[in-house]
Amino acid sequence: MSSTTESTFPTATRAAQRADRDTHFEVEQFYYEEAELLDDGRFTDWLDLLADDLEYWMPTRSNRLRRQQALSIAARGEAAFYDETKESLAWRIRRFDSGMAWAEDPPSRTRHLVTNVVVRYVDPAEHPGFTEEDLLVRSAFLVYRNRLEREENIFAGGRTDILRRAGTGLRVAHRTILLDQNILQSKNISTFF
Questions:
Q1: How crowded is residue 56: how many other Cβ atoms within 10 Å of its Cβ?
Q2: In the chain, is it the N or the C terminus that has fewer CB atoms within a 10 Å radius of its CB?
Q3: Terminal CA-to-CA distance of the chain, rounded, Å?
Q4: What's the mean pLDDT in 160-177?
Q5: What are the sequence ranges of the domains in the chain?
Q6: Is residue 122 classed exposed, middle or buried when 0-12, 13-18 and 19+ CB atoms within 10 A define those classes?
Q7: Residue 102 CA from chain centroid, whole number
Q8: Residue 179 is inside which H or E element, if any?
Q9: What is the CATH number of domain 14-179?
Q10: Which contiguous run of DSSP H or E holds residue 138?
Q11: Rounded distance, CA 180 to CA 1, Å?
Q12: Per residue in 122-157, pLDDT tens?
């Protein structure tokens, strides 16, 4: 093949392509481990699954007419239930452990269910700062929370994560959490998603 012909065909790329079966399985197992750590209250161990440069964001929602759906989710810099870094999450966890987080003493009991996992390779054009080696993962979740005798909450929604390989495993580098509820019925939100 001549060099002219070679330059005519684009180089194969993984950007935005679905991940292979083994990678998909690895991601699902990662999420099951994460859910177990959260449900067992092992928050310090959960922090180890997060990248040092983590962005953890849960924007608020509002009810909008169909033609205004683009405005139904708060933009960056607007109201959010969580707008955290790994450092700020670590601070929250230290506060839980100090006994000064009254909303979590006694602690909540939770059950995290993760489903509808779709794994693709990141398209760096759409996600600057990430590479085709990173994984873009969409999933659905249901989190049941019970505290004291009568406090019960169910949170349903979806997550969009960017997972990065670090050492021998995966780490969450970016997480956007979108609850299906726009008004939370819970007295507080001290649950991680």
A1: 21
A2: N
A3: 52
A4: 96
A5: 14-179
A6: buried
A7: 25
A8: strand 169-179
A9: 3.10.450.50
A10: strand 135-147
A11: 54
A12: 999 999 999 999 999 999 999 999 988 888 999 999
